[in-house]
Amino acid sequence: VYSSCRDMAEDNSLYPIAVLIDELRNDDVQLRLNSIKKLSTIALALGDERTRSELLPFLTDTLDDDDEVLWALAEQLGEKDFIVFVGGSEYAHTLLPPLESLATVEETVVRDKAVESLRAVAEQLSGKQIEEYFIPMIKRLALGEWFTSRTSACGLFSVAYKLAGNPVKDDLRSMYRNLCSDDTPMVRRAAAGKLGEFSKVVEAVNVKKDLIPLFHNLAGDDQDSVRLLAVEACASISSVLLREDIEQLIAPTLTNAAKDKSWRVRYMMADKFTELQKAVGPELTRTNLVHAFASLLKDPEAEVRAAASNRLRDFCEGLGEEYRTDAILTQLMPCVQQLVTDANQHVKSALASVIMGLSPLVGKDNTIEHLLPLYLTQLKDECPEVRLNIISSLDSVNKVIGISQLSQSLLPAIVELAEDAKWRVRLAIIEYMPLLAEQLGVEVFEEKLNQLCMQWLIDNVYAIREAAATNLRNLVEKFGSEWARVAVLPKVLSMSQDSNYLHRMTTLFTVNLLVEVCSEDVIEQSMLPVVLKLAVDPVANVRFNVAKTLTKVSPTIGANIVQSDVIPCLQKLTEDDDADVRYFAQESLVVVQS
Question: What is the rounded CA–CA span in Å between residue 403 and residue 444?
Answer without folding.
Answer: 8
